[in-house]
Task: structure prediction
Amino acid sequence: MKTKPFFGEKGLTSTSANHYCNLAHEQTKRLQTYLSSVKFYSTELSVIGSSEKEVLSKGTTDITLIPKAIETIGQLHSLIAFFREAIKAKDELTKEAMNWEDEAARKEYNDRIKELDARRPLASPDWTEDDVIKSWSVGEQEKYLSLEAEASTLGQYIHDKGALALARERLMAVINNPTEVTENGRDTLIKRFTPTCSQEEIDGMYFDLQAKHRKVQAELNGMKKRIEDEVKQHNLESDSIFRTAYESWKAEKNALEREFTTIMNSENETRKKMLADVQELKIVVPNRLKEIFDALSAL
Result:
């Protein structure tokens, strides 16, 4: 804290200095009133025919007081100006003390917190089925895609409403009803259905396709389960890694924030000392103003 040349170990408080400023101001007004009333002539009043004269006002005869009054006003103004500036300087020092911060410590803290925030761990996006599949070899991916396509194709035809299932049902209906009679006006139309494949042959093929579908679907389901497990495992591990890193980062940040609390506490103690030092400052009376000050003190 830099102090200006208004202060010393002995002198006045701001309150006392302000009091003397007020006294000096009153003395200045008294002297200014005196100077503004100075006349260098006297005024008399008389009546024609009478020898009597009435003195209305007397002019100044002792002019030695005038320069002294002017000099005193100048000294009073100087004293007021000096004390006012000293009070202002002390107020500035008080404000400086109240607002003081440890700039070096704060800069170091801000640099460290900025660097720490830049290292804040970020959670990785959760894996999806596609992420797992992409992590496989080309052969595994081809196998999965082939099983998926084969299961879908087989299911499409052997499903209850699939083309092959419906064709099988129509064959059974034809075997049970090989002819269809339809009246068409005076004519009667007879439509005969002749199986080109035996029921046993079609059933055998159909059941073989069902069995194949179950096998393909089971293998596909196994790979799907593997995908599901890998998704869960990866996300669990990724989350665990993130949480561990985040907790470590958070602990580091908490420790740094505690350091900042220490910085602020230290600043508060320094401010208290600075304020105490400012309060101890006394406003000195310059030697050239000592005479006028003593005169005010004697009032």
